[in-house]
Write a structure and sequence with these properties.
alpha/beta; eight-stranded mixed beta sheet
């Protein structure tokens, strides 16, 4: 447990495992506690995992004022500095994938390999949902008796969560309740995500990149990942059949296998 500090900025991080360093960047509203044990326990056998809290989440301090995805990427480099690392492999999920992209753009020497899961180069690109997904969105929007949290769960897991007895969903909810993120930070992150656009600059990143998505992601559809692979010169796409936006736990075994193969060999099999 440690803080990477500079001025009033304090970014909290933890480590576990051993081997090649792998920096983990969680998505919108999330912090290090959102990573499922089912995934971490598999990865830590092969890598030194560095789990950080974005500013304003978990145990990291929330500085005054608005910020950008680039600012969050700078925070990540401070963590590497504090741990004495010149570079590391970087795995980002959703918004964390945008932070990872910003690291690749603004601090390319700090990134050895890049894994982008359920992410996007520009979140405004909403086209590409198939008819079934469009119908699901319409169905969700018509459920006026459901609260915002239930609505978000519906979208995250691409299902109706009225029967919330799934252990995967329960585990996810329990993780998100450990260290909830303030509304102020949630809004600032949302604004940073909306302003993010890496499409023109990602084409200059020339290191190995793995792009992973689920074909049933109702929040950031698979077409966003396909677009990333068109932009990035050395990117490989891996599609998780049935994978949702919150697939880290449910698909932990497959994801861990894909991540490990890529990080060890720069390629994956069976895709």
């Amino acid at each position: 447990m440690a803080y990477a500090s500079i001025g009033r900025k304090q970014i909290y991080y933890e480590t576990r495992g051993q081997g090649q360093p792998l920096l983990l960047l969680m998505g919108w509203q999330g912090n290090r506690t959102w990573w499922p044990e089912s995934l971490l326990s598999r990865l830590e056998k092969h890598f030194l995992l560095i789990l950080m809290d974005h500013r304003g989440t978990g145990l990291s301090k929330d500085p005054l004022g608005l910020y950008s995805i680039k600012h969050l990427a700078k925070d990540a480099t401070l963590v590497l500095d504090d741990f004495g690392l010149s570079s590391a492999a970087v795995l980002g999920v959703s918004m964390g994938g945008m932070v990872a992209q910003a690291m690749a753009i603004h601090y390319p020497d700090r990134v050895d390999k890049l894994i982008l899961t359920s992410s996007s180069a520009k979140i405004g690109m909403v086209r590409g949902l198939n008819k079934e997904q469009q119908q699901a969105w319409l169905s969700y929007l018509q459920k006026r008796d459901r609260g915002l949290q239930e609505f978000i769960l519906d979208l995250l897991f691409s299902r109706d969560c009225k029967d919330g007895d799934s252990h995967v969903i329960k585990n996810f909810i329990n993780r998100t309740k450990q260290q909830p993120t303030s509304r102020r930070t949630v809004i600032k992150q949302f604004m940073a995500v909306q302003r993010f656009d890496s499409r023109k600059k990602l084409k200059h990143f020339n290191k190995p990149v793995l792009v992973v998505t689920g074909d049933n992601d109702m929040i950031i559809g698979a077409h966003h990942s396909e677009n990333l692979c068109e932009i990035i010169p050395h990117a490989t796409l891996h599609l998780i059949q049935g994978g949702t936006h919150a697939m880290l736990d449910a698909e932990a075994e497959q994801l861990a296998k894909v991540y490990i193969e890529f990080l060890n060999n720069n390629e994956i099999t069976g895709n």
